[in-house]
TrEMBL record:
The active site is at residue 140. It is an enzyme of class 5 (isomerase). The keyword Repeat does not apply. Belongs to the pseudouridine synthase RluA family. PANTHER family: MITOCHONDRIAL RNA PSEUDOURIDINE SYNTHASE (PTHR21600), RNA PSEUDOURIDYLATE SYNTHASE DOMAIN-CONTAINING PROTEIN 1 (PTHR21600:SF87). One of its GO terms (molecular function) is catalytic activity, acting on RNA. It comes from Secundilactobacillus odoratitofui DSM 19909 = JCM 15043. Residues 96-244 form the Pseudouridine synthase RsuA/RluA-like domain. Responsible for synthesis of pseudouridine from uracil. This is Pseudouridine synthase.
């Protein structure tokens, strides 16, 4: 395991001069307590020299940050490694990893010593690099596709803030029952716990919170529709509950649909678009559409 994490970047030509503290908090989204730790340890270098955070930085300046384990309450993820055979990497950088989660795999373990989850498999993949996985968001067990994972504790609060401030754009694909009247729209309905079934969530359920889902029709068949989904909020089972609430449950949904034939859940995390931490770049990562989607489409009436 690493005993430090270092990041270096050069401010681009279009960068407008501002105090270093402001840059670290507003542009690179670092929490104030981490900025304080870096300042106290003089671990912020500008052009290879320590610079107090009230001084300004400008285009062309080289910024170097060095984080230590003591900067974090939980510097190590301590996830037990499992086989890396199922890990399909869609994107990897110094700081983060996007994997194509397989359908039927849990995102992360729920108790000490648990194996078999996606995070356990990724831990085995990263172990030879002396790195560990840190979960940022989760996908339901039966949902496949792009899953974002941090590779060090320094980027965790940055990625969490990107998620919270809706700066990471997530697009899902799903086949649902029936045909939509509108080609696109927004569902804004609160979701809470279903008091009749602890596995489920319900519209206006117990302790409901507002949930917002944007949808766009990609393709329609006589009895099913392929829909692209973007989430503005991230409630448990949000896509599944919202679409079922519209009368268009996801094909194969064991909780919210009533499919006669045996069919796996057709919900796929298709694309992630995000700014890369400690840089000025953005990436768009796409997870190939799974075979279950193609099989369903080939057997669905035009």
């Amino acid at each position: 395991m690493s005993d430090s994490w270092q990041f270096t970047a050069t401010l681009p030509e279009y960068f407008e001069a501002k105090p270093l503290r402001q840059f670290l908090i507003q542009d690179w989204l670092l929490p104030k307590h981490l900025v304080f730790s870096l300042k106290r340890g003089q671990r912020i270098l500008v052009n290879q020299r320590y610079l107090p955070v009230n001084f300004s930085v400008s285009a062309g300046d080289n910024i170097q940050l060095t984080f230590l384990p003591d900067d974090f309450d939980r510097p190590y993820a301590l996830v037990d490694p499992d086989s890396a055979a199922t890990v399909s990497v869609l994107y990897e950088s110094q700081s983060l990893l996007v994997v194509n989660k397989t359908q039927g795999s849990k995102t992360h373990p729920n108790q000490p010593g648990e194996l078999g989850t996606t995070l356990n498999h990724v831990a085995a993949y990263l172990a030879p690099k002396h790195q560990q996985p840190y979960v940022i968001n989760r996908l339901d067990q039966e949902t496949s596709g792009a899953l974002l994972i941090a590779k060090n504790p320094a980027v965790v609060p940055v990625l969490v803030r990107l998620v919270k401030e809706k700066l990471i754009q997530r697009t899902y694909l799903t086949w649902v029952h029936g045909q939509f009247r509108s080609k696109h729209g927004t569902i804004a309905l609160p979701i809470g716990r279903d008091m009749t079934d602890q596995r489920k969530r319900a519209l206006d359920g117990d302790h409901a919170q507002m949930a917002i889902t944007h949808y766009r029709v990609i393709k329609q068949r006589s009895d099913a529709t392929l829909v692209a989904i973007q989430l503005q909020t991230g409630r448990t089972h949000q896509i599944r509950v919202h679409l079922a609430g519209l009368g268009h449950p996801i094909v194969g949904d064991p909780l919210y649909a009533h499919d006669v034939r045996q069919q796996r859940l057709l919900l796929h995390s298709w694309q992630l678009r995000l700014p890369l931490p400690f840089s000025f770049d953005q990436v768009t990562i796409t997870a190939d559409i799974p075979s279950t989607f193609k099989t369903f489409e080939s057997t669905t009436k035009p």
